[in-house]
Amino acid sequence: MRTAYQYKLRPTTEQAIEIDRWLSMLCAQYNFLLADRFDWYERNRSPINACPLVCHIPELRDNPDYYSQKKTLPQLKKTHPWYGEIYSQVLQDIVKRVKVTFDRFLKGDSNGKRSGRPRFKSRDRYRTFTYPQIKDGCLQGNLITLPMFGIVKVILHRPIPDGFKIKTASVTKKADGYYLTLSLEDTTVPTIKPDFNPDSITGIDLGLKDFLTTSDGDVVPIPQHYRKSQKRLRVIQKRISRRKKGSSRRKKAQTQVAKQHKKVADKRKDFHFKTANSLLKKYDVVVHEDLNVKGLSRSMLAKSVHDAGWSSFLSILTTKAENAGLLVIAVNPSGTSQDCSSCGVKVPKKLHERWHECPNCKCSLDRDLNAAVNIKNRADGHAVLKAQRLRAQ
C-alpha cells in the first residue's frame, strides 16, 4: 500500500535561500527541456495533410525522448558547473516530469484523455523538487537528511507508522513556508480488498444547498469556506491594486492574498477528510453520482461548485475506501432527482423546487433525499456487490 504524509519544514535562512536557488535552476532546466521537445514537434509535424508535387522537405531531427534528454545532464554540469550542486536524481526527475507532460499532450493519459499544450513555467509557478529514491533512516527524530542539501528540521505532527518505508521525498514551497511530502509504502498491507458487508450501503446526493444527503436522511451542511472569506479577500486584493508594480509592498500584499487562499483550501480539505471518514466509519459501501464536475464548473453555478470541491471530496473518499478495503461506486446521474424513489415514475421538477411530491404513489419527501435513495438503488446491479453477496451466502 502507498500513502503520503506531509510535514512542515523549518529550514534556516541559508537553507531557505538554497531551496529557492535550486527551484530557480530546476525551473530553467525544465523550460529548456520542454523547448527542446517543442522544437522537435514543430520541425517534424506537417500542418497540412497533403503536399505539392514539388516540395522541399526540411531536415528532420530525432525525437528527444526520456533517455536522450537524460544523457544531456552530464554535459549540462560541464557547461553550467553550478548544476553539479544539485543531486543527480533530482535533475533526472525533471526529465521525467517533462516526458509525462509532453506525452499527455500528444498521446493522452491512461484513459486516452489528452491535456492541453504544456506551458513554460515562470519562477513563481515552479514550486517542487523531488528525490525519487531516498535511503532508509533519512528521518531521525525531527531531522531529515536530504542528499547534497543537508539536514533540515521537520515538524512531525504525526509519527510514521511502523513497517512503512520512505520511498520518495518532495520539497514544496507554499505561501506560508516549505513542506516535505513523504511517499510511504508497506508491503505487508494486502492490496486485495478484505470482505465487507454488502448490505451496509448508502447513497449520497451531492448538492449546493447541503453538501450531501445520505439515503438514510442524514444531512451534512455545506460550509462555503470561500464565500465566507470573500470580505477578507476583497480588502487585501485592493491593497495589491493600489500599490506600485514591482515594489516590495506589493509583493507583501500578494503574499497575504496567497496565504488567505491557502487557508481557505486547507479548511476545505480538512472538511472533506472528516466527512469521508465519518461516512466510511458508518458504511462499507458508498454510492455517488458520476458527475460531470468540469461541465458544472462552467455554468452559472461555477463559484458554488468550486467552493464545494466535489471532485476533491470524491477523490479523497475513493482513496480512503480503497485503503480501508471498502467500496465506492459511481452510478449514472441521469434522472436521479426527477424519478420517484418509491414507484419510479418521472416527476419533473425545476431546480428551485426542493420537495418531491409523487402524484402516482403519493410519496412525499425532500428532493435531495429522494435522489439519494435513487442513487443507492442504482448500485444493486454492481458486479462487486453481487459477487460479495454470493460469497456471503
From TrEMBL:
Residues 188-299 form the Probable transposase IS891/IS1136/IS1341 domain. This is Transposase. Residues 1-45 form the Transposase putative helix-turn-helix domain. Transmembrane segments: none annotated. Residues 310-375 form the Cas12f1-like TNB domain. Residues 240-261 are annotated as: Disordered. It comes from the Bacteria. The keyword Nucleotide-binding does not apply. Keywords: DNA recombination, DNA-binding, Metal-binding, Transposition, Zinc. In the N-terminal section; belongs to the transposase 2 family. In the C-terminal section; belongs to the transposase 35 family. InterPro entries: Cas12f1-like_TNB (IPR010095), RNA-guided_DNA_endo/Transpos (IPR051399), Transposase (IPR001959), Transposase_put_HTH (IPR021027). The keyword DNA-binding applies. The lineage of its organism: Bacteria, Bacillati, Cyanobacteriota, Cyanophyceae, Oscillatoriophycideae.
